[in-house]
UniProtKB/TrEMBL annotation:
Entry protein name: N-acetyltransferase
Keyword Acyltransferase set for record: yes
Cited PANTHER family: ACETYLTRANSFERASE, AMINOALKYLPHOSPHONATE N-ACETYLTRANSFERASE-RELATED-RELATED
The UniProt record lists the keyword Acyltransferase: yes
The N-acetyltransferase domain, residue ranges: 1-157
Keywords linked to the UniProt accession: Acyltransferase, Transferase
């Protein structure tokens, strides 16, 4: 499966994929949201305008029909004062789910992050899903979640380096703290 870097012409198609992928969850989380857009669309828009946006880590999976099947992004985050990455959102259009698109995107963005020399990537997600990519509970490495309620869902993938991975409090790019999930 081809995974490539997002280009400027992909922005609207990526927004549409994120909206379609998260629409079922948004209706349950925020039934009174006036625009009906999933919070992940707003987050993505705000991340694009943030200094934490890393265009080299915004990847798409083109669809066979020429559109976009999926998207993933890593943005600049920190463990204490050490620069690291936060993964997400990850979105696959419902018409392309359960075909390996999400897995291919995660493998590609982790490979790119490691090639760039990043020490670790953190995310909030299903331990059952993300364990296959080498993610472990953050506390295994002394990384504390911004929200203790995330528990086992806050995970890190540590890359092999000559120095130990950073430990301490994790902070996502600033838009994550502004965008409200309801």
């Amino acid at each position: 499966m081809l995974i490539r870097r997002e280009n400027p012409g992909d922005v609207e198609a990526v927004r549409a994929v994120v909206a379609a992928a998260f629409a079922p969850y948004e209706a349950a989380r925020n039934p009174d949201r006036p625009d009906g857009l999933p919070v992940e669309v707003t987050l993505l828009d705000e991340l694009r305008a943030d200094p934490g946006w890393l265009p080299e880590l915004s990847l798409v999976a083109p669809a066979p029909d020429g559109g976009i099947a999926g998207h993933v992004v890593c943005t600049r985050a920190h463990v204490g004062t050490v620069p690291v990455l936060g993964l997400g959102p990850l979105a696959v259009h419902p018409a392309h789910q359960r075909r390996g698109v999400g897995s291919a995107l995660v493998h590609a963005v982790l490979g790119a992050a490691e090639a760039l020399g990043e020490p670790l990537v953190a995310l909030v997600g299903s331990p059952a899903y993300y364990a296959r990519f080498g993610f472990e509970h953050s506390e295994t490495y002394g990384v504390t979640a911004p929200d203790p309620g995330w528990g086992e869902f806050f995970q890190v993938r540590v890359f092999e380096r000559p120095v130990p991975p950073p430990a301490g409090p994790f902070a996502y790019a600033e838009p994550f703290s502004r965008v409200d999930e309801g």
